[in-house]
Amino acid sequence: MVSSVWAKSALIDTSEVTLERLPETVNTKNSEFGHGIYDNQLIFSSLRADSISASEEVYDPHYKTSIYSSKIEDLKFQASEQVKHLFIEDLHTGNGACSLDGKRFYFSQCVEDGYNYRCKIMVARYANNQWVGIDSLGEIINEKGSNSTMPCIAEIKGKETLIFSSNRAGGKGGMDLYYSKITNGNQYGKVRSIKTLNSLDNEITPWWDSIQKRLYFSSSWHNGFGGYDVFYSEFIDKFNPPINVGIPANSPANDIYYFKNRDTAYVSSNRLGVLYSKNPTCCSDIWALIPPEKIEPPTPEEMLADLNKRLPVTLYFHNDVPNPRSWDTTTNVNYISSYHDYTAMIEKYKKEYSHGLNGEKAEYAQLDIESFFIEYVDKGVEDLQLFRDLLLTELDRGAKINVTVKGFASPLAKTDYNVNLTKRRIASLVNYLREYNGGVFSKYIDVTAENGGKVIFSQVPFGEYTANQLTSDNPNDVKNSVYSRSAAIERKIEIQSVSYLEEEKEFALTTSQPVYDFGKQKKGELLRHTFVVKNKSTETITISNYRILCECVRVNAQQKTIAPGQEIEIEFILDTSKLSGFVVESIFIQLENSNKELRLYVSTEIE
User: Fold this and answer.
1) CA 62/CA 272 separation, integer angstroms
2) Residue closest to 179 by CA, chosen among 238, 222, 230
3) Are residues 496 and 520 part of one domain?
4) For residue 235, how many other CB atoms are within 10 A of its CB?
5) Residue 573 maps to which CATH number?
6) How many domains does the chain have?
7) Are 382 and 483 within one domain?
8) pLDDT digits (tens, 9 = 90+) for 31-69
9) Rounded distance, CA 571 to CA 300, Å?
10) Pick from 120, 160, 335, 369: most CB atoms within 10 A?
11) pLDDT (average), residues 532-537
């Protein structure tokens, strides 16, 4: 029995939402349990029998729980279909969760054991538009003789993490919550109990809120309204004590499988109001908790400010990654895959950077590298997740967004090689967004969204132009040119600004090579390079001005008007008579009737 003090507090703290049972395209008179929304599809489990007796006992001995999906079109749930690729003959399947990159799907596979189930966690991989290669996670997760189920994927301290429920040995009692860190998408670390949340009874159906950094779950032990209640735990360096989410998410019935999608939360419950044949609380349905409509929505300026206050988002890479030793300007690598590979090399970085040192110096070098990964690499991914969710919210409102991304590199390779490398790194970020959550960004990147929303990425491949030129560029000195903190901190890309596209068309002027490096030159030389720029639009454009910041720079261009598809040559002239050391100079090409510019760069080292 709950205390009157707790019950009063819970009622006061309850948020004002509208509770609606999902339509009969999803719910049936049997049992449905929701797991999440991926790529605009509701993924859920359903126990659907061919026939039910008058007492609502299934008497078809071949019924099984399976995974289903329901597409969401115009905010309506369409008729559900069984996910055939995840169906396993004579076994129960359910409890689905996607990996962070959307390329793996974790779910439970169960066999009946009398009145109970024996479950283990499986994983499938996405290929050729279907889930393939179903396999068990092994005994690290599926401990022999135990029941392991209800997988949830989270990003905790920059690490992909599997959270699940199990009655394995050593728990507090019943089903407890556990977690294991995932490396490279297929290696699972030591399983650890979430002791703050576990009890003598059952803790089940975990779900991670990546925005609020909360773990939601259901328990039949902690203070509640009856049956299973939904709780959450704030994660601040550790899981904090559970808090009941209150009414209407909870009721005197069993309330489980809580999750959110955007502003709406969902819960599976056998409360009064479910679909049934005879017993009004027989079986679970999926319910939506819809927040009240906002009377005063934020202005575009306020929403844009939310995005920009998260910037810059800085993402780091291992040396010459992705696509090592390549002159390509694009890649198929997803940034998160690159990130996991990078963080898996921490021990090698510590070993290489401390090589040749002893005692406290070696220990300091190792701590220095380890802190870099925590404070910079992991932090970058956390910032990216927050930025990603805010960006998606904007695009779902129909916004047209321009994201400016700058690339950097350590000065180990030649400048022109590094320009292409930074382009590949920027492409890996776009790949991550394109593949995230089953491809929710794809329609905005490809400009096919029905709501008119779109996102373009303005790439500024700086190469090593702004890198610390004191960083070693000696390929034979990998300790300092690859594994040092000073080198690692230069290998990055930055999401630096976000703005609304004021007009439907993109900036018309483009060039395939915006950067040229003269290499080492003697003081007093007059250096010349010809850039080729193109009008990629369907209208004639006119150059109105060349904005120059240094008296050492001149422009020689005979033509101002450029027809659609036409290319023209622009000569960049650099007078080195008053320059010394490493130099980067630019010209900014401005067009009539546009406030945007095309920037061309040259660099040189004056001896």
Assistant:
1) 28
2) 238
3) no
4) 17
5) 2.60.40.10
6) 3
7) yes
8) 999 999 988 899 999 986 533 333 333 334 456 789 999
9) 41
10) 335
11) 91
Which of 504, 535, 558 terminates a domain? The answer is 504
β partners of residue 455: 401
CA dist., res. 324 & res. 7, Å (int): 60
**Rounded to an integer, what distance in angstroms lies between the CA atom of residue 252 and that of residue 382?**
37
The structure tokens listed for 363 are 């220990």
Domain boundary among 457, 488, 504: 504
C-alpha–C-alpha distance, residues 561 and 570, integer Å? 13
- What CA–CA distance (Å, rounded) separates 90 from 269? 26
Which residues, 6 or more positions from 313, have their beta carbon under 8 angstroms from its beta carbon? 380, 383, 384, 387, 494, 495
Q: Which structure tokens are listed for 409? A: 């590199």
Q: Are residues 279 and 368 in the same domain?
A: no
The whole-angstrom separation of Cα 390 and Cα 210 is 12
Residues 418 and 492 occupy one common structural domain: yes
Q: Which long-range contacts (CB under 8 A, 24 or more apart) does 127-136 make?
A: 130/85, 131/83, 131/85, 131/86, 131/105, 132/85, 134/86, 134/88, 136/109
Long-range contacts of 477-486 (CB under 8 A, 24+ apart): 478/352, 479/352, 479/353, 479/355, 479/356, 481/410, 481/412, 482/319, 482/352, 482/410, 482/412, 483/348, 483/349, 483/352, 483/353, 483/369, 484/353, 485/353, 485/368, 485/369, 485/372
Distance CA 363, CA 357 (A): 9
Q: How far apart (Å, rounded) are the C-alpha atoms in residues 118 and 136?
A: 14
* 60 residue type, one letter: D
Sign of the C-alpha dihedral computed for residues 142, 144, 149 and 154 taken in this order? negative
Q: Give whole-number Cα distances, 288 to 95, 257, 281, in Å.
A: 18, 12, 18
446 CB-near residues (< 8 Å, 6+ apart): none
The C-alpha atoms of residue 258 and residue 36 are separated, in whole angstroms, by: 9
Confidence of residue 305 (pLDDT cuts 50, 70, 90): confident
Q: What is the largest CA-CA distance in the chain?
A: 98
Select from 481, 459, 182, 184 the least CA-distant residue to 338: 184
The 10s digit of each residue's pLDDT in 199-258 is 999 999 999 999 899 999 999 988 888 889 999 999 988 999 999 998 889 988 999 999
> Residue 365 sits in which domain range?
298-504
- Angstrom distances, CA of residue 599 to CA of 406, 415, 563: 13, 17, 20
Which amino acid appears at position 534 of this protein? K
pLDDT digits 0-9 by tens, 69-127: 999 988 899 999 998 888 887 788 998 899 998 889 999 998 877 667 789 999 998 88
Six-digit token string for 505 = 């068309």
| Per-residue pLDDT tens digits for 339-355 | 999 999 999 999 988 88
Instruction: Return the amino acid letter for 48.
Output: R
Share of the chain above pLDDT 90, in %: 45
Judgement on whether residues 325 and 458 belong to the same structural domain of the protein: yes
- Residues, the chain, total? 607
Taking the CA of residue 298 as centre, how many other CA atoms within 13 Å lie in the half-sphere pointing to its CB? Answer: 11
- Distance in angstroms between the alpha carbons of the first and the last residue of the chain: 83
* Residue 179 to residue 191: CA distance in whole angstroms: 6
Residues 126 and 255 in one domain: yes
Whether 596 and 453 map to the same domain: the answer is: no
Give the HSE-up count for residue 30: Cα atoms under 13 Å, Cβ half-sphere: 19
Specify whether 192 is located in the same domain as 241: yes
